[in-house]
## 1
Amino acid sequence: SEVTNTKHLPQAIIIGVKKCGTRALLKFLSVHPAIAASSTEIHFFDSPKHFPLGLDWYRNQMPIADTKQHVTIEKTPHYFVDKRTPKRLARLLPDVKLILILRDPIIRAISDYVQIKNRHESYPTFDNFVSMENFTKWTPIRIGCYAIYLRRWLKYFPLEQIHFVDGENLIHRPWEELESVQRFLNVSNHIREEDFYFNMEKRGFPCIRQPNGCLGSSKGRQHPTISGQTREKLKHLYSNCNLQLKQLAQIDFPWL
Ligand SMILES: Nc1ncnc2c1ncn2[C@@H]1O[C@H](COP(=O)(O)OS(=O)(=O)O)[C@@H](OP(=O)(O)O)[C@H]1O
């Protein structure tokens, strides 16, 4: 077939959610011979600086794809929570396939917290935050109420255009999640169970054998233990959010 060696607008975008395994998913997909994955987060639709530069700028950020058979894909987890992105995306790339990876919102919140704490030494403990009166407004907590944001997306995209990945299963049995993502993207089932190994030095997270290995040191960080009281409070808060998500997305992941 004809080699085009050029950049294409993405046919698929991992729109989020932050700290749910977006990097792992994209890294694993990038070993597929028919997938051209962007190595950085592009932040086109959500950025006042980039968006006015238009689709030519966006296309130019994409990786070179060998042939027209390639599926070009990028991930920018902030798209999911950005108010302007769904409308802009629907207008500019109405047929784009959307991939949304979700994990247990309590673990996601701790992961988000650990990332912030990493940059701000004197940051309070997670338990301290959750004991505050208006803790539900704190971003690491709020983002985990996925239904709030998904509802916005569904104003612009039909459910069939969004593929939901279980971020917990992506850690335990990544090949299963990849099988359905590959099907959704209409590419061959190339990534298999034997392509993975589990790295015990990295809290048991999966790595892919060739050619990419494990994720970098900013992924798979140590998490603090949280009190039983904090956990109960969050379970209570998220039970309603999770119920709404199940109904909106028509999914039933084990942790929901
Ligand atoms: N294979 C593999 N290796 C390492 N880490 C993995 C993997 N699969 C999923 N995860 C989980 O992904 C969490 C980071 O999520 P994201 O990549 O979406 O983060 S970000 O939003 O781009 O910052 C990251 O969060 P932390 O554990 O808090 O570091 C991991 O829990």
## 2
Amino acid sequence: MRGRNSAPSSPGHRLGSGCVEKLQLLPTLCTIFTTCVGMSGRRIATAPYRTPAVSLPCTDCQRGGGRKAEHSGDITAVLCFTAGADTVSAGKLTAGDVTDTGIAALRLVTRYLPWLPGDFGIVEDSFNDAEVVPLIVGRWRELCVTAAPATTQRLTNEVVSLVVIVEEKFTLREVLVSFKSCLVDNDEDVIVEHYLNGWKGLVRFMNSLGTIFSFVSKDAVNKIQIMENYLKGENGERYRTLQSMVEYELSSDLVDVTKRGSHPESGCRTVLRLHRALRWLQLFLEKLRTSSEDSKTSTLCSEAYNDSLANYHPWIIRKTATVAFLALPARNMFFEVMNVGTAEDVVDMLGEAMPYVSKVYDFTQELYSQHNLLDLP
Ligand SMILES: CCCCCCCCCCCCC/C=C/[C@@H](O)[C@H](COP(=O)(O)O)NC(=O)CCCCCCCCCCCCCCC
């Protein structure tokens, strides 16, 4: 992380669900425009109100600034730089520019939105032809700042509009259903980017259960990162789907097949680890779905683990995992954290989402089996 902000997280500032905040900042003129559009009707920023400048609709939600607003966690902030005389074209942008943008964004956020809960900092800068994405992410309640398309932005001293969208509280439904978007070509292939998004959501959910699972989330995040680096790399197109990744890595001799050697972090072996964990998830969710009110989540989790992932883990990891499971909240509390609704709603949601998770699992299993990749070291 580049910048950090330890904004105090006061419960009094917890944000209502579905609340939409728009904050317009004109730094050069020292004018601040704020508009709060909240379902809760609660004003959460204190800057003077003025009609907001036009911001580009997000292609995903139509609710705010940049093209690639990521709606993870509770909060999405979209930083838009409106067009100015010195509009910088995407071609001229450098990583440094992007970083500066991100830092500027962070400063604005820290200054004007001190109520944002959590620690956050700039963790990722990237851009392609169309957009700059300085991403500011916090823990659990995430803050993503996405710039408007580069062709319409100036990076310094211009009108900056910051649109903060307070998302509905994180819900596991979206995460699980996101596995649906992985599947393409009549369920005959899986898009890696969407697959990773599903995992990111799961990790976020796990993090909300407490730091006891941080050893698990660190490993998962590390593997997600490895795959994201491939996607961003010069052969990124080869990693677009699982099928194309397998074909590419095998044909280019990029996979250590019998023991770890020159390619210890191939895409194939990295996805295999996540794939095995997906089996655990599948079993666990199915147990949760069919469990009775008095079932213990720790037992369900442990059983699912023993029937899947544990077979690939050494003794010390198995023991650590088993102890960590004991810290899982009781079933009703666990359902609450999922934020899906009543217990019946959770069961319905699982019934709806599970087939997608299963399809992704089955496809990957078949693909790996065809290429003898199920035992990659
Ligand atoms: C809800 C509780 C979450 C409990 C998580 C259960 C899974 C327990 C897995 C324990 C993994 C321990 C960490 C270390 C793993 C690595 O040694 C091992 C091998 O990697 P290597 O070959 O590179 O060395 N890595 C792995 O097997 C990959 C593990 C990835 C685990 C991802 C788990 C994400 C869990 C998401 C939870 C979401 C729960 C949603 C339920 C409603």
